[in-house]
Write a structure and sequence with these properties.
Layout (H helix, E strand, L loop, with lengths): L12 H21 L1 H9 L15 H15 L3 H11 L1 H16 L2 H24 L2 H12 L5 H9 L1 H17 L6 H21 L12 H10 L19 H5 L2 H30 L5 H31 L5 H23 L7 H15 L2 H6 L1 H5 L4 H12 L2 H12 L6 H25 L14 H20 L3 H6 L1
Helix pairs in contact: 1-5, 1-7, 1-8, 1-9, 1-10, 2-9, 3-6, 3-20, 4-5, 4-7, 4-19, 5-6, 5-7, 5-10, 7-19, 8-14, 9-14, 13-14, 13-19, 13-20, 13-21, 14-16, 15-16, 15-21
C-alpha cells in the first residue's frame, strides 16, 4: 500500500502560475489579432459605425497590416529564450506585455496622420515585444509543473490562445459596431494588458522557492516530482553550464517539431486572418453578424481544447495510450481533418452559407488538438532548455503569418471571387498534410540526451574544477586576524 502524496492545497501556487500564463496569453492574443477585424471596420465604416474615420486602403495595404505584426514577432522569438534564462520569466514576460499594451493604445491617435504605414510600424514594434513571451511561457511551465502534471497544466495555459482569439474576434466586431467605434478595440485590449501586468508583478515568481505564498507541502511536492537527476537547480547552474547548441540544432526530433508547428501556423494564420474578409466577400455577411460568426469557430476551438485535454488525461492516466501515441494521434486529427475541410469550404458560396460556417467552425475546433499534439513537445524534449527550443520553433512558425496574408493579397485580387479563395485553401491544406506527415515519421516525445546538464562533460568539468580550486584556495588562506591571535 503506497503512502498518499501531499501535493499541498487543491488549488496551489502552481495552478495560480498557470492561470497567470493563461491570462497573459489571452491579453496578448487579443492585442495581436484585433487587427483582422479592425482593418475591415476602418475601411468600411458603413458596416460598423459611420461616425468614425474611414480609410481608403487597398487589399494589399490590408495584407501588409495583417502581416506586419509578425515582422517583429519572429525576430525576438529566439532572443526571448535567452533573455528568459538570463533575467527570468517574470521580468521578461512583464516587459513583453507592458510594451505591447503601450503600443496597443497608439493606432487611434497615429493612423489619422500616418495612414496604413504608421499602423504597420506600430504592429511591427508590438510584435517585437510579444515575441519574447512564448519562450518564457514554456520555460515557466517547466519550472513550475511536476512531470506528471505537465501535459495537463501546459495544455490549460495554452488554451489562452483559443480564448484570446475568441475574445478578439467577438469583442472586436461588437466594439467596432458600437457607439464608441473601432478606436475602442485598441483602448479595451490595451487596458486588459495593463491590468494583467499589475497582477503579474504581485503574484508571479520565477521558481517555486521564490514564491512568497507557496506552502511547504506544495514546494516539497514540486521539487520531488520534477526530474531531479535532469533539472537545473534553482536556476543558478543554468547560467554557468553552456548550452549544447550543436546537439540541439542537429536534433531531428526538434526539426520534426519545427515542421509540425510551422505547418500548423500556416493553416491557422490563413483561417484566423482571413475569415472576416472571406465572410464579407464570399458569404456577403455584414460586420455585426460577421463578428458573431467569426468568433464562433474560436468558441468551438476553446471548448474542444478542453475536450482534448480531458481525453488525453484519461488515456494517459489509464495507460491506454503512451504520451507519444497521444501527441501524434491528436496532431494528426488537428491537421489532416482540417486539411480536408479547408478544401470543402472553398467550394461553398453564399447559397451554402450555413454549411460553410459549420465547416469553418468544425475546422478550427478540431485544429485545437495541436496544442496537446505538438505545442507542448518542447517540454518533452528538454525541460531545461524549453525556452530556447520554443524560441527556435516559434521563430520558424511565425515567419509563416508574414507570408500568408501577403499570399492572400496576391492570389485574392477580388475578395468576392470564390475560385481565388479555393487556391488559398488548397495550399493551406497541402501544408497541413505534409507537415504532419513529417512529424509522424520523425517526431519524438522523449527526454533528449542533450537535456542533461552534464552533456558537455569537458566544459562542465572545467567549470566544476575551477570552482573547486577557488574554494580550496580560499579555505587555505588564513585570515590575518587569526594570524595575529596566534
Amino acid at each position: 500500500m503506497t503512502a498518499e502524496i501531499n501535493k499541498g492545497p487543491l488549488l496551489g501556487q502552481r495552478h495560480l502560475q498557470v492561470f497567470l500564463l493563461f491570462t497573459s496569453i489571452v491579453v496578448n492574443v487579443v492585442m495581436k489579432y484585433n487587427a483582422s477585424v479592425a482593418v475591415v471596420a476602418m475601411t468600411d465604416a458603413e458596416t460598423t459605425n459611420p461616425n468614425f474615420p474611414e480609410y481608403d486602403w487597398s487589399d494589399m495595404h490590408k495584407s501588409y497590416i495583417l502581416s506586419s505584426f509578425f515582422w517583429g514577432y519572429f525576430i525576438t522569438q529566439f532572443p526571448g529564450g535567452y533573455l528568459c534564462r538570463r533575467f527570468g520569466a517574470k521580468r521578461t514576460i512583464l516587459i513583453s506585455t507592458l510594451g505591447s499594451s503601450v503600443l496597443g493604445l497608439l493606432p487611434p491617435f497615429c493612423v489619422s496622420w500616418g495612414g496604413w504605414g504608421i499602423y504597420c510600424g506600430i504592429r511591427v514594434a508590438q510584435g517585437f515585444f510579444q515575441g519574447f513571451m512564448f519562450p518564457c511561457v514554456h520555460a515557466h511551465l517547466a519550472a513550475w509543473c511536476p512531470v506528471s502534471e505537465r501535459n495537463r497544466l501546459g495544455a490549460l495555459a495554452n488554451t489562452g490562445i483559443e480564448c484570446g482569439t475568441l475574445l478578439s474576434m467577438f469583442l472586436s466586431g461588437i466594439l467596432s459596431a458600437s457607439s464608441i467605434g473601432w478606436p475602442s478595440l485598441f483602448y479595451v485590449s490595451a487596458g486588459m494588458g495593463f491590468v494583467w501586468c499589475a497582477a503579474w508583478i504581485f503574484l508571479a515568481a520565477n521558481e517555486p522557492h521564490e514564491s512568497k505564498f507557496i506552502t511547504t507541502a506544495e514546494l516539497n511536492y514540486i521539487d520531488a516530482a520534477k526530474n531531479a537527476s535532469k533539472k537545473i537547480e534553482a536556476g543558478e547552474v543554468e547560467h554557468k553550464v553552456p548550452v549544447p547548441w550543436r546537439a540541439i540544432l542537429t536534433s531531428l526530433p526538434l526539426w520534426a517539431l519545427v515542421v509540425a508547428r510551422t505547418a500548423h501556423s500556416w493553416g491557422f494564420s490563413t483561417l484566423q486572418a482571413e475569415i472576416p474578409a472571406y465572410m464579407k466577400g464570399v458569404l456577403n455577411m455584414d460586420m455585426k453578424s460577421n463578428a458573431f460568426y467569426s468568433a464562433l469557430p474560436y468558441l468551438a476551438t476553446w471548448c474542444m481544447a478542453y475536450v482534448y485535454l480531458i481525453v488525453s488525461d484519461v488515456l494517459l492516466n489509464r495507460n491506454i495510450l503512451s504520451l507519444t501515441a497521444i501527441r501524434k494521434t491528436f496532431n494528426t486529427l488537428a491537421l489532416w481533418v482540417p486539411a480536408v475541410m479547408l478544401i470543402a469550404v472553398g467550394y461553398l458560396d453564399e447559397e451554402q452559407k450555413t454549411l460553410a460556417i459549420a465547416l469553418m467552425t468544425a475546422n478550427v475546433g478540431v485544429n485545437s488538438g495541436s496544442t496537446i499534439g505538438s505545442a507542448l513537445n518542447t517540454i518533452d524534449l528538454s525541460p531545461n532548455y524549453a525556452g530556447i527550443l520554443m524560441g527556435i520553433v516559434n521563430t520558424s512558425a511565425n515567419v509563416v503569418p508574414i507570408l500568408t496574408p501577403l499570399l492572400v493579397g496576391v492570389v485574392v485580387t477580388d475578395e468576392h471571387n470564390r475560385s481565388q479563395w479555393q487556391i488559398v485553401f488548397i495550399i493551406s491544406a497541402a501544408v497541413f498534410a505534409l507537415g504532419n506527415l513529417f512529424y509522424l515519421v520523425f517526431g519524438k516525445m522523449e527526454l533528449q540526451p542533450w537535456d542533461d546538464v552534464n552533456f558537455l562533460p569537458s566544459k562542465n568539468s572545467n567549470i566544476i574544477d575551477a570552482a573547486e580550486k577557488y574554494d580550496k584556495s580560499v579555505m587555505s588562506e588564513k585570515p590575518k586576524s587569526l594570524e595575529l591571535k596566534e
